[in-house]
């Protein structure tokens, strides 16, 4: 009986399969990241338009921090498949705290260095600048940092599970 991984791969177009198999932890990491991006977006704007109206960096920080907890759980159980030890918790907290700061930097620069905020610019320009700097640029830079740092310092014990995943790969096509 085929494994869930084999069944999922059977539905993927042929040319994409080798890439997905070779970069499976990156693909899983990106799926988790996309989910957490949407969570951050919802929390950020929920706070920004209610209790943190004059504190957009606080709203982004809270949204990013909460999504980071969800990210930890999903990445630990699925993307990097840690072997059950919680020894990665301290490095995860350190990397995540740094990543939240990395995520906030573009918004801080946009608002307080380039003064892309009211009254210097229109409300619309401020909101576009906040979205691009905080949600897009900040997220992309923090994502690259997190992926590198998580593989290097946090989820380092993944060889066992990668060997199991490789055993579940579909046979190579001949001809």
UniProtKB/TrEMBL annotation:
Q: What is this protein called?
A: GtrA family protein
Q: Which residues cross the membrane?
A: 26-45, 57-74, 89-108, 128-149
Q: Which InterPro entries match?
A: GtrA_CellWall_Glycosyl (IPR051401), GtrA_DPMS_TM (IPR007267)
Which family does the record assign?
Answer: Belongs to the GtrA family.
- Using the UniProt record, give the first listed, main subcellular location: membrane
UniProt keyword terms in alphabetical order? Membrane, Transmembrane, Transmembrane helix
Q: Where in the cell is it found?
A: Membrane
Task: Answer yes or no on keyword Nucleotidyltransferase.
Answer: no
Membrane topology reported for the UniProt record: Multi-pass membrane protein
Instruction: Give every GtrA/DPMS transmembrane domain span.
Output: 28-155
One GO cellular component assignment for this chain's record is: plasma membrane
- The superkingdom of the source organism is Bacteria
């Amino acid at each position: 009986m085929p494994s869930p991984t084999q069944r999922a791969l059977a539905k993927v177009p042929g040319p994409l399969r080798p890439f997905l198999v070779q970069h499976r932890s990156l693909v899983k990491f990106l799926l988790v990241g996309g989910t957490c991006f949407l969570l951050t977006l919802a929390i950020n704007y929920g706070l920004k338009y209610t209790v943190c109206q004059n504190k957009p960096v606080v709203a982004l920080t809270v949204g990013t921090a909460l999504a980071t907890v969800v990210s930890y759980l999903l990445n630990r159980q699925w993307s990097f498949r840690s072997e059950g030890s919680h020894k990665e918790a301290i490095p995860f907290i350190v990397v995540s705290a740094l990543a939240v700061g990395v995520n906030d930097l573009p918004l801080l620069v946009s608002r307080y260095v380039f003064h892309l905020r009211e009254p210097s610019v229109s409300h619309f320009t401020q909101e576009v600048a906040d979205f691009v700097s905080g949600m897009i640029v900040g997220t992309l830079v923090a994502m690259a940092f997190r992926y590198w740092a998580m593989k290097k310092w946090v989820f380092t014990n993944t060889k066992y599970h990668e060997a199991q995943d490789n055993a579940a790969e579909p046979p190579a096509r001949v001809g």
